[in-house]
Each structure stands twice: as C-alpha cells, then as structure tokens.
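Lecture 7 notes. Example A: sequence first, then its structure tokens.
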Amino acid sequence: MDPIRNPFAPGAGQRPPELAGREKELAAFEVVLERVARGRPERSLVLTGLRGVGKTVLLGELRSMALRRGWGAGKIEARPEADLRRPLSAALHRAVRDLAVRHRAPDRVEAVLGVLKAFALKSNPGDAKLRDRWQPGIDVPAASGRADSGDIEIDLVELFTDVAELAADVGTGVAVLIDEMQDVGADDVSALCAACHELSQSGAPLVVVGAGLPHLPTLLSASKSYSERLFRYVRIDRLAREDADRAILAPVEREEAGITPDALDALFDRSGGYPYFIQAYAKAAWDAAPADPITAEDVAVAAPEAESELAVGFFGSRYERATPAEREYLRAMAELTEGRDEGASTADVAVSLGRKPSSLSPARDSLIKKGLVYSAERGWIAFTVPHFGKFVLGMDD
C-alpha cells in the first residue's frame, strides 16, 4: 500500500480522518450554541476521559463549530503551577478579534480590549521592574477600575461580563475552551466557577468548555459545591465497535482501498477501541500491507511497529517522568490491575509493596501531579493512560 496515501494520523490532538462516534456530543453543543445566542440559559460544558480518547480533538471541533456560527472562540491548554491570567488573556483576545470583524462600533471593541489588557497586566508581580514587566500584545491603553483589582475572582467576572456583552451586540456568543483543565490552580478554578455562575444567572452569552482527566468533576466540586449544577459533564470513552470500524473504513474507502473483516476484528482487539490506538495500529497496518486489501496478517505484522512507536511517544515519554519510587508504585498498580483498564485500592497497593499507606502518599501525590494517575474518590487510584499497566509490566520483561 502506498504510504503517501496513508490516511491515518496518530498524533496528540490531531484530528483523525474520520471523527466517528462523537455525533451525540457535537449535536448537544449545537443546541448550546443556539440557546445561548438566543439568550436562553445554558450550562457550561466539561469533557472528561482518559488520555487517548480524543478530548483535545473534540475540543478543537467544538471550537470550529463556534467559529462557523460567528462566535468568538479562544482555546488554551492549562499547565501545572501556571497562572491562568496570561493564557486566558490570549484566548479572549482571539475571541474579541473574532467578534470585532462583525461589530460596527470600533470604540466599543477598543473599550473591551482595554479591560482585557488591564486584566492581563495583573499577571505581573507588583514589584517587577518596568523592563521586566510582561506586556500583552493588545494595542490599546489599559482601562482603569475594571478587571484590575488583582483578585482573580472579581476580575474574571468583570472581564467575562464585558466580553459577553460585546458578543451580545452582534447576536452571537463567546466560547472559552480549556484543555487539561485539571491542571488549573485551585484559586483559578474557584474564579472560573464563580464567573460561570454569575454569567449563567444573568444569561450572558459566554460558555466555558473544559476538557480534562476523569477526576476533574471532583476537583471542581471541591472548589465550589454548586459546580455540580453549574457544568454539564460528558464522559468521553473508547469507541463502540461500530464507530471504531467506521473510523477505519471511511478513510480507507475514500482512498479507494479495502480492508477485510478479519483485519477490522484484529485492529479492534489490539486498539481496545481507543481512538489514538486505532490511528496508530491502522497507520502501521496500511504501511505493512503489501497489497490491497489490508488483511489480519498485515495487522499482525504491523503490530510490533505500532507498539514500538506507542512505547516511545505515548507511554515512554510519561513513564520517564516518574522517579524510581514512583515507578515502583506504578508497577504495583499494574500488577493489581493486570489485563484490565481499571483502578486499584490504595490499601492494596500498600499491601503489595509491604508498606504503610501513609508512607506512599508522597509518591501517589506526585504521580497525580504528573498526570500519570488519578483518584476520583478516596482510597482509589487508576492510570490516566489506557493500557499503561501492560506497558509498565513489559518494562521488566
């Protein structure tokens, strides 16, 4: 098979050639866009799931939908220990520029940009020298007395309100999309929840769409108890067999090529229905196939190549971030969950390692911060990456 025509594209956040199995989520967001634009109350949205299920891809697709409807839309990726003001300022600057092309009052747009600049400048330390102060790329004077108190909760409510009103002027809305939302700091999470709460009560046309690991709802709830009612949570999981087959068949058929039913069976068995793995194994199978159609034998020949690439780019890059003590913890988890993408009791991990649970807390907490494991409830721990346990066990083989 011609590798140049290979349609499959495994990559972080890269849209697959066929976005299968997400029709329900896309249709639901279409309703959100229409309701908010008409001034109807609607909750913000949070997508949760393991790594490799396509949250980032779906987030990008939702952003594209908003832009097609004339919305302003900005997207950021949260990072641990990083302040939210700067990336959020950049995202909202992009959203305001999207709206500006439709707005008939330049002075009104500039006024909002001035508030946005005032908000952004508060990310600078108060004692920073002038030459060391960060300057956002907003070419208007900073406003005074609006979104510049230094209290992120107060400032964010005021900024969101002004940006939303700008969108209302042109009959649309604003979408703020936040990837890796579990990495947003506690104070910033609280401010986001408060701002969304304020806007939902006033019916302002601005929604936050977050994406993160499965324990994100727990983090939001710990920040603001009303977050359970503030957001609509959507769990993104592996694809059903029918959708997994379509994710492979549609791109292959568009290239006027073929694949046997046995090959589809083999690809589903090896990928487990996880979108990222489907792309990795399908790409390798296409390249390995000597002729059309792709067969189960081609999948078997290609599997080691796909697994080698996953071991380096998907699993290995994460595993390398763990210390020896953390790897010991990961191995104990892998042994307890062997063959299953499920969690384990932290007490069982301690028993397996012959340690007291309290002595393992530092390793567990560090692994959570590094995004390798998550805990959605007390006394329970699981891998954030599908098939990660199998990889860990294979490290010593």
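Example B, a different protein, same format:
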Amino acid sequence: MFQTKVKELLLKKDLKGLKEVLNLETPVNIAEYIEVNSDNEKDMVILFRLLHKELAAEVFANLDADEQIKIVGSINDDKLQSLLEELYFDDMIDFLEEMPSNVVKRVLENYKHENRSLINQFLSYEEDSAGSLMTIEYLSLKSSQTVKESLEQIRKNAEELETIDVAYVIDKNKKLEGEITLKKLLSSNDDEIIENIMDKNILSVKTSTNQEEAVKLFKKYDLTVLPVIDKENILIGIITIDDMVDVIEEENTEDFQKMAAMAPSKEEYLGTSVLHLAKNRLTWLLVLMVSATFTGSIISKYEEVIEQMVVLAAAIPMLMDTGGNAGSQSSTLIIRGMALGEIKIGDYLKVVWKELRVSLIVGLGLGLVNFLRMKLILKQDLKMSMLVSITLGITVIIAKLVGGLLPIGAKKLKLDPAIMAGPLVTTIVDALALVIYFYLAMFLYSDVLR
C-alpha cells in the first residue's frame, strides 16, 4: 500500500502529498522502498530530501552502503553536515567503515572538528572487535547523585542517547563502578543515593574482545546493552542489542558459507559481481576436487576387483552418499552446539560416546533395511547383500564419529569449526568407505577374487 502510494505521488509530482506520506511512515519501510527502487537514482534523491532531518538520519542508517554512497554524492555539504549531526555515533562509524576513501574524506571535512580524532580512533579498532561495534552515546551517572538528580539528567539528555534503559555509574576518572536500570530508578525514592542502589556485579567486555565473545554474553544473559571498557576499567562505550543482531546475522551467514565450502563474503548476493562470487567458490572447490582424487585413486587401486565383480560398482554411489549425509548431520549439530556454547573442546569424549551410540542405532537400521531391499527386491545373493549392508553400517558409524570430532579438532587448532562441515567431511568419509568396502569384498569373495 505504502509503495503503491509513493509511486503514484511521484508520477503526479505531488511533492507536498509525498512529503506528508513519507514523514508518517517508518524509517525501515522507507529505506526498503529506496533500496528496491535504487535504479531510479533521481526518485531516490527526491524521496530522501523530502524527509525531515531526524527521519532522514534513521532512514540513512537503514540503507545499504551502495545507496548511502549515492545519497552522499547527491547532497550538498550543508545537508550532509545536518545529516551527520543526527546520526548516532555507532551508525556513523558503521557507515564510514563501508565507504571509499574519497567519501570518508568528505564526511570528515563536514563533521564537527572536535569529534574527528574520536572517529579516527574508532575506525582504528579491529573490524571484528567490540570496539568497532560500540557507541559513545551512553547514559552515565555518578555514584554520589540522588535518584531525583539522575532522572532530571536523563530527561535532559534522552534525545541524544541511543538507549536509556541502563545507566552506567562511573567515578571522576570514568572508571566503571556499577549500573542501574531505568526501572530501578523510577521505582526508588527521590532522595536515594545511586551508590546504595546500583548493581556492582556487572558484565563488560574490553575494546579488543572479539565480537563472537560479546555475542555469547548477549545470548547467555539476555542482555540489551553491554558496556565496553579499556585495560584500566575506564568506560569507553556501549554495545546495543540492535548492533548485536546485525553481528549474529553476519556470523550465521559466514558459517553457512563456510559449511557450503565458500569463502565468506558480507556482500549481498544480488549486489555481488559474478567474478567475486566465482572467486569465493573456486578456491574451496579446487581444494575439494584435489582431495577427491584420493577417492579416485582408491577406486583405481581396486579396478581389477571391480572388473571381476561389476556388481560391486553399483553400490558405491549409495555408500558414499549415505556416509556423506550421515557425517554432515553430525558436523552440523556439533558446529551449532559449539556456536551456542553448549559443546566445549574438552567434551570430545562425550561427543564420541553419544555419536557412537547414535551411529550404532542408525547404522543398524539402515543396514537392515538395505539387506532386505537387496535380498527381496533386487534378488542379490546372501553374500552381496551382507557385504553392502555391513559396509553401510560401518560407514555410518565412521561418518558420524568423523563428523562429530572434526569441528572440535578445528577449534583445538584455532580454526573455524564451520570449515569442517559437509563437503570436507564427505570427502574424508568417501575415501574411508571405499577402503572398507573393497577390503570386505576381498575377504568375503576371496575364492572368487584372485
């Protein structure tokens, strides 16, 4: 409804009506409309210029980097400065991190002089660190203040702060002493001293802490905000839940890409060039292709066996597929468990014991069903039915153990467990399954195979 209305008003060139519609809409919906219709740069600029400055800043923060660049390039310095003044500091940093150097230079030239050094400091933090995620627009109180004084301070500064749900109590040197929620302030007497009612048992991270560790704290303790301190316990900034949601999405996307044997990329699919997509996939595919030559060499080694019993070849695809699928199931569960903090490196024996029991049940079930299929439906002899079914059961057991242990091994070696997912597990299990299959074949058919 909103998008249709905007299109109609643009066609009629009814800018007054368009401005009224836009300024009643949510920033997310406006940003979504701009992105969907980003090919029409003229209309995109018109829409953005019609927004009042507070709404324009919120819409800008919700846009992708490509659209942000177009908008910055289409507005004059006065409009740019006005936009920058309305942006929250962390949104400003996120924006600058995605921009080319010429855009960053222009933005810094139009930003308040006293904050330029602070921006440069934030831009110097490691990309995946807590420091790169935080904002300096937090609510701080002094332990000597009363509740009444604190509430008056909040009312005075609320518009400039990203969140007022939690206030952080600092001393004269800005060292973090405690925290207090707005709910606690509102339910306390006006003459209460903050020091007496604040919570001194607070969670925090350092500026150098990896963002994954911050994500774990948010998940474990259901946080909406997390303070960031330096080595001397001085409060530097805070990380809010909206930034954490973005990080969680990025981390999950990165894990999915690694599990699919692709190099991670933060760019959107439709906005990524064909060459870039090909490059991200080609490297891992080459590695897997080369590693798969081991499977081919195993088959070549037992070529004479296959020639004497062609029927052996018919079961190879089924054994390899089932082994790969079984291993992928285990690796996916273990990787997910490690990401959520449910499984630690020291739990490898528990993982082995659990996957062993699971694989015995699954392997026995699949082996039995396959035996009946080959004997009753395919009319194979007893030996062949036993050979394939026993190999299938053993393959499933090995696949689940390999799939369960490889991610833990990767973590131990300080590698990303996600790389030990489907494709790599499948390659390893395929080779093991073939060796077991041909060895059992040579044992059971020793009188035939010479």
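Note on Example B: The CA atoms of residues 332 and 421 lie 7 Å apart. The mean pLDDT is 82.
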